[in-house]
Specification:
The protein is mainly alpha-helical. It is built from ten helices and two strands. Strands 1-2 form a two-stranded parallel ribbon. The N terminus is likely disordered.
């Protein structure tokens, strides 16, 4: 059902983009460490805003994260693990920052039906009317993406799908099976962003990364408490916090350290 597509503007091969902006590359790498999909964005301001928001979550407990998830519109019913809540929050933050055209492109790649905004008279269109129309269309498209991604999530589409056109992602799952959650953006990178896949590879549907090694395998010298908290951050790729972390660091300091990729404590 899902097929990869090519975003307007395309992308460039990693390491071969002449005049690539190092600030853009650095921000994208930082966003990736926090679990944020940034391939779609070449706007430094948007990347900085998303990164600032994600960093602020590092000091949140699970209850505070759930409150923030509700504000973002991320469904979290039945979620208990911090990493699962953060995964959904990162998706919603990326979608909220995309343009209407980018949201439409993502819906097309996922096979999600939607209606484009009706043509409007060009004789007189007030600025606030245009902004409201964009906001309504953005809300509708995000509702369709949420409904397709999260089983049981309410949205503008029929709950049981549209025969021969679209079915929600959880409709073919076995009881207890978790749906595959794709990145917020499955198309080609935006202009100025290194290309990840090209040629025949671009026709393949996105694949989830292989499960990371267990904390005990990655840092065998650390204690049980640090290993327990590290399990909440399967994407952590930073250095070990050191032996003293087991006895001298609080749980909050450990979570901040792992959430920030080892940049903060």
């Amino acid at each position: 059902r899902r097929s990869a597509g090519v975003a307007p503007g395309g992308g460039q091969e990693r390491g071969s983009a002449p005049g690539a902006d190092p600030a853009l590359t650095a921000l994208r790498e930082q966003c990736s460490k926090f679990g944020l999909c940034a391939d779609w964005c070449a706007d430094l301001g948007k990347l900085e805003g998303m990164l600032k928001m994600a960093r602020s979550w590092g000091i949140f407990g699970v209850c505070a994260l759930k409150d923030e998830s509700g504000r973002l519109g991320a469904p979290i019913d039945g979620l208990l693990e911090r990493k699962d809540i953060l995964e959904r929050m990162c998706l919603l933050v990326a979608w909220k920052n995309m343009s209407v055209e980018q949201l439409q492109a993502e819906c097309r790649r996922r096979g999600i039906p939607f209606f484009t905004r009706a043509s409007r008279s060009q004789i007189l269109v007030l600025e606030d009317e245009t902004e409201q129309s964009d906001a309504d269309e953005r809300k509708d498209l995000m509702g369709r993406l949420r409904q397709d991604t999260f089983p049981g999530c309410a949205g503008p589409l029929p709950a049981h799908g549209i025969k021969g056109v679209w079915q929600p992602s959880g409709s073919r799952l076995c009881p207890g099976e978790r749906p595959e959650i794709l990145p917020a953006w499955t198309g080609a990178p935006a202009p100025g962003v290194p290309q990840q896949r090209h040629g025949a590879e671009a026709a393949k549907p996105p694949q989830r990364a292989a499960p990371p090694a267990s904390p005990a395998d990655t840092f065998p010298d650390l204690g049980l408490r640090v290993h327990r908290i590290l399990r909440e951050f399967p994407n952590f790729r930073g250095a070990s916090p050191g032996l003293e972390a087991e006895t001298e660091w609080s749980d909050e300091q450990l979570r901040t350290f792992f959430f920030s990729g080892g940049a903060q404590r």
